[in-house]
Amino acid sequence: MKNKKLSTIQLTILGLMTAILLLMSYTPLGYLNIGPLAITFNVIPVAVAAITCGPLGGLIVGAVFGLTSFGQCIGIGGVSGMGATLFAINPFLAFIQRFIPRALDGFLLGYIFKGLYAKTGKLGISAAVTGFSSAFLNTAFFMSSLVLLFGNTEYVQGLIDGRNVIVFICAFVGINAVCEMISSTILTNIIALALNRAHLLFRDEEPRGLKEAVIR
């Protein structure tokens, strides 16, 4: 999208994605708790916002996701056992660890989608990759910041249990991350195509391949 300002339709979708994310964050719809981690579906509104509103939209909704995630450290909208422990160790670093990865994720997704769509002209593929990237980057940034900021603490050292850091991350996120990536890939693709068919995408221009955009 060439226009740097968000259109009325984009602002409406941005508000809707923010509202959906808040609803998911404060109800069981957003998280499926398994062990110390949770499968989160909140990466999907972030991806959709990045697709429809670019890096700025992704950043805004990603930041909201980060704030709700931090809220769980202090019992707002549920309780995260890991978050509460990290908050007790260092509240400021806990905020950084919960907030920055989600905001950065949303910001980068806007560029990922724009770059892919500009190169391929295929909305289905671009949206699917953006959805996958939303879950993948969220997990990668979250776990990297956990190790970077809290890796020397007794709590995280106990989780690592002498293993290689990469092995620890892969084992720790396990099936949770795989489920997030699959669900985000499929649902982001479906939502983006539905918005396109409803003429709610690309209102200011007619990108290459818009009318032929299909799941490929």
What does this structure look like?
This protein has helices spanning 8-25, 43-71, 81-89, 91-120, 123-150, 154-160, 165-197; strands at 31-34, 37-40. It has one domain (8-197): Arp2/3 complex 21 kDa subunit ARPC3. It is globular and about 50 Å long. Helix 4 runs antiparallel to helix 5 and helix 5 (123-150) packs antiparallel against helix 7 (165-197). Strands 1-2 form a two-stranded antiparallel ribbon. The chain is mainly alpha-helical and 216 residues long. It is built from 7 helices and 2 strands; from the N terminus they run H-E-E-H-H-H-H-H-H.
Task: Provide a compact summary of the structure.
This protein is mainly α and 216 residues long. The protein has seven helices and two strands, in the order αββαααααα.
Task: Give keywords.
2 strands; disordered C terminus; 216 residues; Arp2/3 complex 21 kDa subunit ARPC3
Uncertain runs are 203-216
Q: Would you tell me which CATH topology applies? A: Arp2/3 complex 21 kDa subunit ARPC3
Number of strands: 2
Order of helices and strands: HEEHHHHHH
Shape, please? globular
Cα-atom Rg, whole angstroms? 18 Å
The side-by-side strand order for the widest beta sheet comes to 1-2
Largest beta-sheet details:
2 strands, antiparallel
- CATH class designation: Mainly Alpha
Q: Which structural class matches the secondary elements?
A: mainly alpha
Mean pLDDT, all residues: 86
Percentage of helical residues? Answer: over 70%
Tally of helical segments: 7
End-to-end separation: 22 Å
User: How many domains, as an integer?
Assistant: 1
In the CATH hierarchy, the architecture is Orthogonal Bundle
> How much strand content do the residues show?
under 5%
